[in-house]
């Protein structure tokens, strides 16, 4: 079974790189978004199993996007990305419905498939 993912980041270069990594690991990127509002719309339209979500977006931050999605039926499994992990606690992440965090510079080494696999189980 293919796992559908939406990639959210305001940097088009990072979106391209993340899409390439996810696709290489057998995941299907169904949409890319550059801000929180378009991320919410993409998730509602495509109903992906996973969301690779940047913390810093031009309108809403990633935690706000995650909190809104957590209120919806069958929210996607959210993996947060950022360059700085020290900005929030694990409790804040869990309260927002975020499954895990992967630093942007560690994304290439992450087992991306397993991060999103439990979304389908």
What does this structure look like?
- It is a single chain.
- The chain has 121 residues and is α/β, with parallel strands linked by helices.
- The chain has one domain (4-115): Response regulator (Rossmann fold, 3-Layer(aba) Sandwich), CATH 3.40.50.
- The protein is 37% helix and 23% strand.
- It is built from 5 helices and 5 strands; from the N terminus they run βαβαβαβαβα.
- The protein has helices spanning 12-24, 36-46, 62-70, 90-95, 112-117; strands spanning 4-8, 28-33, 50-54, 77-82, 98-103.
- The protein has a 5-stranded parallel sheet, sandwiched between helices.
- α2 runs parallel beside α3 (62-70).
- The radius of gyration is 13 Å and the shape is globular.
- The N and C termini lie close together (11 Å).
- The model has no long low-confidence stretch (mean pLDDT 91).
Summarize the structure.
The chain is of the alpha/beta class.
Q: Any descriptors?
A:
121 residues, alpha/beta, Rossmann fold, 5-stranded parallel β-sheet, 37% helix
User: How many E-type strands?
Assistant: 5
Radius of gyration, whole Å: 13 Å
SS-based class = alpha/beta
CATH fold-type name: Rossmann fold
Beta content comes to 15-25%
* Superfamily (CATH H level) name: Response regulator
Mean pLDDT: 91
Number of domains: 1
Q: Which CATH class?
A: Alpha Beta
Largest sheet, in brief, is: 5 strands, parallel
Q: Strand order, biggest sheet?
A: 2-1-3-4-5
């Amino acid at each position: 079974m293919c796992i559908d993912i939406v990639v959210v980041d305001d940097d088009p270069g990072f979106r391209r790189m993340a899409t390439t990594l996810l696709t290489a690991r057998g995941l299907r990127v169904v949409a890319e978004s550059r801000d929180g509002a378009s991320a919410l719309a993409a998730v509602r339209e495509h109903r992906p199993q996973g969301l690779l979500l940047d913390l810093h977006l031009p309108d809403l931050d990633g935690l706000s996007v995650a909190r809104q999605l957590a209120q919806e039926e069958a929210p996607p499994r959210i993996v947060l990305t950022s360059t700085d992990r020290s900005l929030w606690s694990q409790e804040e992440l869990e309260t927002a419905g975020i499954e895990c965090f992967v630093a942007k510079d560690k994304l290439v080494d992450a087992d991306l498939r397993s991060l999103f696999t439990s979304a389908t189980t």
